[in-house]
Amino acid sequence: MRRSTINKASVIMAIFAGVVLIYWFRLFQLQILDERYTIDARSNAIRHKVQYPGRGLILDRDGRILVYNEAVYDLMVVPGQVDADSVDWNLLARLIEVDSAGVRERYRKARAYSRYAPSVFEKQISKEVYGRLQEYMYRFSGFYVQSRSLRRYLRPVAAHVLGDVGEVNAEEIRENPGYSQGDYIGKSGLEKYYEEALRGKKGVKVVMVDVLNREKGSYKNGMYDTLPEAGQSLYTTLDAELQEYAEELMRGKRGSVVAIEPATGEVLALVSAPTYDPNLLVGRVRSRNYGDLLHDPQKPLFNRALMAYYPPGSIFKLPQALIALQEGVIAPNTGFACDKQLIGCHEHPDAKSVTEGIRMSCNPYFYQVFKRVIQQGKAPDIFEDSRIGLARWERYMHSFGLGTRLGIDLLDVKSGYIPDTGFYDRFYGRKRWAFSTIYSLSIGQGEVSLVPLQMANLAAVMANRGYYVTPHLVRETGDGRVRANIDTARHYAAVDPRYFDPVVEGMYEAVHKPKGTARRAEIDSIAVCGKTGTSENPHGEDHAVFIGFAPMDAPKIAVSVFLENSGFGGTWAAPLGSLLIEKYLTGKVERIGLERQVRDFTIFERDEDGNIIGPPAH
Amino acid sequence: MKDSVWRTMDKPLLLIYLLLVAAGWFNIYSVVYDPENLAGFSFATRYGKQLVFIGCALLLAVFVMIADIRIFTQFAYLYYGVSLLLLVAVLVAGVEISGAKSWIRIGALSIQPSEFAKVATCLAFAKFVSQPSINMKQPRMQAMAALWFLAPMLLILLQPDAGSALVFLAFILPLYREGMSGWVLVTGSVAVALFVAALLVNRYVMIGGIALVTVFLAWRNKRTLKNVSLAVLLFISCSLYTLGVDYAFNHLSAHQQTRINVLLGKEQDVQGAGYNVNQSKIAIGSGGFWGKGYLQGTQTKFNFVPEQSTDFIFCTVGEEWGWVGCTVFLGCYLFLLLRLVRLAERQKSAYARVYGYGVAGIFFMHLFVNVGMTIGLLPVIGIPLPFFSYGGSALWAFTLLLFIFIKMDARQRNL
User: Fold this and answer.
1) What is the tens place of the pLDDT at every residue in A374-389?
2) What CATH number is attached to the domain comprising A171?
3) Complex ipTM
C-alpha cells in the first residue's frame, strides 16, 4: 500500500516533468533550430523602407535646367497583411482609376510573388490621385505609399543626348546587384553613361509597424537607418538654345547636326532627326510610346549623329589636301586642270592652288592630289606602291579622328570606316588593286564612311589648325570636379599646322568668294569657313553635307550638318549650318528669309495644310 | 498566531508565487508598452489595472494566512453549491464576451464564476474524497467523486468555455492518487493517441494497424481463451472508437474542423484559423537564444499576436527573453508543481493531501494547455496562464487556491 502510493506520487511528478521537458524541447526547436520564425518576425513587424534619392539634375552649359524630377507615388502592398475578404476592392479600384477585376488580379500576383515582401501595386500615381487615396489609406491595411520621382523635361529637346530612364530589368540586376526590382536606371544617353553619378545612393529607414500597418517608430532608434544621398547634377556642355534651334531647323528632314566648341571639344548641340519629345518615355506612358517609336519607319530612336555611316563626300577633300601637303607631294600653289576625263565635275575654272581647289571643290584636282599621295614611286611595282601609299594615308586619316571611335561620353558611338590595305587585299586580292581601283576615295566616295560626329570633329580640327579635343557632353558633375574619365588632351593630326592655312583659306573662300560652293552659308558680319559635300549613296537622292566653323580667327563653333537625300550640299546643308553659327555667335538670326526657306524645306511630302505626311524611310 | 504562521509557512512556495506574480506584471507592462506613445503611469492601462489586481491578491493571501482555515474547509459544500448556482446564473444572466457567457457584471466589476468554481470544487472534492468512511478503491466511489468536478465542468461547457471546462480534468490526478487505477490514465492516453491518429490516418489503415497491434499482444502473451478474447475485445473497441472519432469529426462545425486540421498540420492557413498560432510561433521563435530583451519585442507589441496580454501572454516571454528565459520560466513552474506534490504527500490530513493534489493538477492543466497552445502543440483553447495572464478573477482564484494550501500546510506544521 505504502509503496504503491509513493509510486503514484512519482508517476504524477513524472507526468509534470515529462510535459515540461517536451515543451522545453519544442521551445528549443522553435527558438534555436528553426530560423524561419526569426525571418518571419522581421518581415512581420519590421519594414525596410527604401529612401529613394533624387536623381541628379541635368543642366546645360549656362546652368539652365534640362532635366529635373517630379514626385510621384508608388502604391505598395504587403499581401500577408491584407485581409482580402474585407478590403473594399471596388473603392480601391476607383481611387487608383483601374477596373476592380484588375486590382484583384494584381493582389493575386503580388501574393504569388511574396506574402511578406512588399510589391508595387500601382506605379507612379499622380499627386492628385495620391491626395484622394491618402484619405482612405486607413481602410487598406497592408498597403502603403512610397514616394518616387520621375524625370521631367522643361524643354522637350536633346532626347538622344539625355537618354531615358526606366525600371531595371532582370539582366541589369544580375550585373549589378546593388539594384533591386522597381529601381530606375539610365537606359540610354547621358542617363546611362553617367548612371553612377546620377543615381545617388539609396537610403533605408527601418521602421516598426503594427498589425494594422501603422508605423510605430524607428527600429532600434534608427541604428540601421541610412540617409539617401541625392544624385550628382550633370553640368553638360550643351547650349539649350542652340540645341532647340537646331532641332527646329531639322524638322521635316532626316539626318543630324553636331556643333562643337573647337578649343575644348565641348559639344554644343547634337541632333538626330527625326527626334522625339523625351517626355514620351517617362512614367506610365513609357512602354507604349517606346513601342511606337521603335516601330516608326523613320527610326526616331536611332541616334544618327553617332551611329549612322555616311560617305563623307567632298568634305573629305580637306584631309586629302592636308595629307598631300604634309607628304610634300603637292605645294600650296600646285594647280591641276579640271579634267573631267578623270572624274566628273561641275563647270568652273581650273584650280591653280590648293585654296582654289577647296573653294570650287574640284573633283579632278583631288583625283590628282590623291593619286600623288597613293603612288609616290616608293616601289617599282605599281600595286606595291599603291599599297605603301594607302597604308601611310590611312594612318594620317586616323590622326584626324576618322575611322576611329571618338571617346564621347555616350555609348553606342561608332567609328566610321577608313579602308586599309587589308580590306582591299581581302576584297580584290593582294597586288590586284592600285590607285585606279580606289580613286573614288579622293572625293570621299567609295568604301569610306564617317559618322556625323566625326564630320564635326573634322571641322574642329580645321578650326584648331591641327588638333582636336575628344568631343564630350559633360563638363563636370555635382561635386564640382571635372570628370576624370573625360579626355581633355589635344589630339594632334599628323599634319604640320602651317599646311592648314591654305586649306582653311579655301574654306573661307568657299563661303565668301565667287565660285565658292558654300556661298549660301555666307554671313556678312562673320568670317565663316565651310566645306560642302554631296554624298552619293544607293538610297536614292544624294545626301547633303556641310561642315564649317566661325569666326575664321579664334573659332568658337564648329558644325557638321548632314541631310539625308537633300541633294547638293550647298543648297540646304550649308545655309542650315550657317544659321546655327549665326544663332550661336550673335544670339539671334537676322537672315529671316533664309531661315524661312530652310525651315520650310523638307524631304517629306506635305498635305494641303503643310503637314508632313511621308514618305516612309528607305 | 500571525507570527507563527509566518514562521511555519512554506517559504519556497511563497517565494515562487511572488516571483511569478512580479514577472507576470513586468510582462504585461511590456505588452502594453508603446515606444511611440510613452504616457506616464496610469491605472487606466492594463498594467495599471493589473497592479491593482495584484494588490488585492496580496491582501487576499494575507487574509487567508491569518484567517482560520476552517472558514474554508467547514463550508466547502456551501461554497461549492454557491458556485454551481453562479454557474447556472451566468448561463442565464451572463455577459457574452467573444462567444461565451462567462462573465457576471456586478456594478463596475466583472467576475468569472468559473474561476471561483475551481477553488470551491477543489475544496469540496477534497472534503468528499477525504471522508474516512469512503473507500476510494471502489470504482463506484471513484465515479461519485468524479461527479463533483464533472458537474461544474458540464455547466462551464454550456457557456461554452472549453478551456475552463478542461481544467476540471485536473481532478483526475488526486483521484488517481487516492485509489483510481493507473489503467484509467493509460486508457485515457491511448484514447487521445488513437483520437489524433484517427484524424491523421485513413480509417482502413488505422483499423489494420489496430489489428496488427492486438495480434502482436495476443501472440506475446499466453494464448489462453481469456487472453485471446480480451484481444478481440480490444480490437473491436479500438476500431469502433476510431470510426466514432472519424464520424464525429465529420460532424463538427467547419471552423472546428479547420482548427483541428491546422493544428495537425493537415491544413496551412496562416491567415485564418492558423493565424493566431502562426503569429504566436513567430513571436516565440524569433526570440532565439537570448531573446530580444525586455521591452524590445516587436511581434508581441504591435498586435501581431492576438490576445497578447491574456491567453497568448507566453509569447512575450518567449520573444523578449528567448530560450534562456523560457527555460527559467518552465523551471519555476516545474518547481512549483513538484513542490506542491511533495508538500501534499507530507500532509497528515487526507483533506489537505487531496486538496494539494487538486491545486497541483489545476496549475498543471493551465500550464499544459496554455503553453501547449502558444507553441503550436495543442489546439487554440482560451485559458489563462497562471500569474501571467492579464485579469483579476483568475489571479485571485489562483492566489486563493495556492494560499489555502499553504495555510493548511503551515497549520499542520504548527501542530
Assistant:
1) 999 898 999 999 999 9
2) 3.90.1310.10
3) 0.90
